[in-house]
């Protein structure tokens, strides 16, 4: 099989045998982020499709997630790092009820490689924990990630709770269950500060850069 297909297959099959050697080969042709956004994401999309069709069980999807995480960890040291002064502090969290963290952690890597100080609160983070962290850390923005349909609704609740506690720093939202339209029509009206939608991690970086200017 061609290299690109082999890379996608590691994710689909949840197998790490030969993965590192193929990632190293890919690094001689592609930028690390293009390997993630290309063949590895293609594999993840296929995992999502198979899971949806009941052709994979959760345990298998978890193994695919492990392959994705190991790949990102291997590629991360090869990513470009900007030698800039700290541009700002950003809190990151996967919202309450949601365990998906691969996208959020990718956002963390890309933002921290580009001069942002990141406080990663982890997964299933309830609003009160975000509020407490916002009070202690005084971030310039708060990033929320969520992949489940119910997580989009949880973002509305989180925005309301943040507003009720007097927080109005910009919120950056992203994740598969979310759309620009939902962000604009459902989350933004519930909040006093800016609410910005990022379609992927690079878009998140663009937005963060604009906010810091
Ligand atoms: Co889950 N899962 N999962 N899962 N899982 C999805 C999301 C699903 C679409 C699969 C499907 O059915 N086709 C589906 C959601 C259905 C829905 O609500 N509409 C689903 C389901 C149903 C579930 C469970 C309920 C399954 C079960 O238990 N029966 C369960 C939920 C548990 C819970 O959260 N309470 C569950 C569990 C899991 C695993 C634990 C097995 C595993 C996660 C492991 C982990 O993250 N540590 C898992 C996985 C891996 C997936 C899929 C296959 C892949 C997600 C992923 O990592 N993608 C996913 C299907 C899919 O998306 N194709 C699926 C790669 C990642 C890089 O992309 O996170 O989208 P993503 O991030 C992107 C952008 O969205 C954006 O940038 C990234 C790219 O640059 N982005 C941001 C994300 N966050 C951002 C934040 C930002 C900016 C950009 O600023 C702050």
From TrEMBL:
Quoted from the entry, the domain comment is: Modular enzyme with four functionally distinct domains. The isolated Hcy-binding domain catalyzes methyl transfer from free methylcobalamin to homocysteine. The Hcy-binding domain in association with the pterin-binding domain catalyzes the methylation of cob(I)alamin by methyltetrahydrofolate and the methylation of homocysteine. The B12-binding domain binds the cofactor. The AdoMet activation domain binds S-adenosyl-L-methionine. Under aerobic conditions cob(I)alamin can be converted to inactive cob(II)alamin.
- Family designation: Belongs to the vitamin-B12 dependent methionine synthase family.
Q: What is this protein called?
A: Methionine synthase
**Record's function text:** Catalyzes the transfer of a methyl group from methyl-cobalamin to homocysteine, yielding enzyme-bound cob(I)alamin and methionine. Subsequently, remethylates the cofactor using methyltetrahydrofolate.
Domain B12-binding: start-end pairs: 87-213
Q: Which residues of the full protein are shown?
A: 627 to 839 of 1150
Tell me the ranges covered by the B12-binding N-terminal domain, including all copies: 1-87
- Which sequence ranges form a coiled-coil region, renumbered to this chain? none
């Amino acid at each position: 099989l061609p290299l690109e297909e082999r890379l996608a297959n590691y994710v689909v099959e949840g197998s790490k045998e030969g993965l590192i050697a193929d990632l190293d080969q890919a690094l001689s042709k592609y930028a690390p982020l293009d390997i993630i956004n290309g063949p590895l994401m293609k594999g993840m999309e296929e995992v999502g499709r198979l899971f949806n069709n009941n052709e994979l069980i959760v345990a298998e999807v978890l193994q695919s997630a492990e392959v994705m995480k190991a790949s990102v960890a291997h590629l991360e040291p090869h990513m470009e790092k900007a030698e800039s002064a700290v541009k700002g502090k950003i809190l990151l969290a996967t919202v309450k009820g949601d365990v998906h963290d691969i996208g959020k952690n990718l956002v963390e890597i890309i933002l921290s490689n580009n001069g942002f100080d990141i406080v990663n609160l982890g997964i299933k983070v309830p609003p009160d924990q975000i509020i407490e962290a916002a009070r202690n850390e005084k971030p310039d923005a708060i990033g929320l990630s969520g992949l489940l349909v119910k997580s989009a609704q949880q973002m509305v609740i989180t925005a309301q709770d943040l507003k009720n506690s007097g927080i109005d720093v910009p919120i950056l939202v992203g994740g598969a269950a979310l759309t620009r339209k939902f962000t604009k029509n459902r989350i933004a009206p519930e909040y006093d500060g800016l609410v910005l939608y990022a379609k992927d991690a690079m878009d998140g970086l663009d937005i963060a850069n604009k906010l810091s200017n």
